Amino acid sequence: MQHRIVVLGAGYTGATAAGRLARRLHREDVALTLVNAEPDFVERIRMHQLASGQDLAPRPLGEMFAGTGVALKQGRVTALDVDRRTVTVAALGTDGTGEPRDEELEYDTLVYALGSGWNDQGVPGTAEHAYEIAGRPGALRLRERLAGLAAGEPVVVVGGGLTGVEAATEIAEARPDLDVALAARGGLGDWLSARGARHLRKVFDRLGITAHEHTAVTTVEADRVTTAAGTALPAAVTVWTTGFAVHPIARATTLDVTGTGRIVVDRTMRSVSHPEVYAIGDAALVMGPADNPLRMSCATGIPTAWQAADSIAARLTGGKLPDVPLRYFNQCVSLGRRDGLIQYVTADDRAVRAALTGRFAALYKELVCKGAAWGAAHPIVLPARRRRVLREAVVPEGSPVGAAA
To answer: Which residue ranges does the record assign to the FAD/NAD(P)-binding domain (predicted)?
Structure first.
């Protein structure tokens, strides 16, 4: 009987994990199913580009996984029962109506990669009036709204992190006729080195972006945002980028999760409460160097996908568990299409003095984006030895169970 592996979510992490498992395991031994709500792979790290009016090449999942042995199931995950080992999916019907119908999938091993969406932080008016770029639907909605703005109208990006900085610079470069501002709780680029922060301010000045530093937004209305100091900032469009919230499905299960709903995993990405469940990417609480949680990002997600896939394959085939530390090397920030910032960091993500800036940094960031998409879109292009699944897979004695982060 085949070992049933179900992967939930086909973003960077889910697609990478499914493809890596297909390379590692014999097709005769496993039934690999990849579940995703959309038919295409979405380059989430380019949503600010999509929102600003650029077109992204479609990447149909059917083409990506053709001939890999991975079965695709398009549908939205509506329930997860980790005690019965079942997933309920609202999949498109086959009766010609296109109406979704519930299907129940059983699994022996589950890879949870449902990721995260935008987080309105409970700020009044945000859900009703703000725009987000955490996914394709939100980016397209913002794109349409920006296209309808007249010259001189104000756009306020709320959030001074990587997403906010990239959104503000992309919009300002694409629409220099708009009045773009960014509201940040801290100082502009205060996570960067001195060199990196100087360059960011230089780009903001060049693009005409107003930075409202040490500014907390407490209310969002249709035509303005209000700060904690009581100041009203005009905003024909408010773009909300203050962080992410994980998919709520895990919190409704008996999985051990954090207060924010992230699944607690060990160093092989396996749930500490349910060993047949692995969580990767934004959905997982992953500990890095000095036992600090790794941030939600593509830079975190893809290595966790490698770790989970290799750990699953090792446990099923009696191989050696991976021993690759999870760490950071740099933060790659696009500042429009012609400028960028590569901030080098310590293993635990603290900025060091070294940073690349300007056109070369923009090209570097573009290569990173293309590389991440290429890796997900070509899951088994590289040769690999497929191993047979043991009838009763056990971790061999002496394997480093606590091996990864």
So the answer is: 4-309
What would the pLDDT profile of 297-324 be if each residue is shown by its tens digit?
A: 888 889 999 999 999 999 999 999 988 8
CATH, range 3-117+244-327+367-377: 3.50.50.60
Residue with tokens 């496993």: 30
For the stretch 103-124, pLDDT in tens is 999 999 999 999 999 999 999 9
Q: Model pTM? A: 0.91
CA separation for the pair 25, 304 (Å, rounded): 18
Cα 285 to Cα 295: distance, rounded to the nearest angstrom: 9
| Number of other CB atoms surrounding residue 393 within 10 Å | 15
Domains of the chain, residue spans: 3-117+244-327+367-377, 123-240, 330-364
Contact 305, 14 (CB under 8 A): yes
Angle (CA) 336-133-157 rounded to 5° is 65
Half-sphere exposure of 209 (CA within 13 A, CB side): 34
Q: Whose CA is closest to 249, among 61, 89, 27, 13?
A: 89
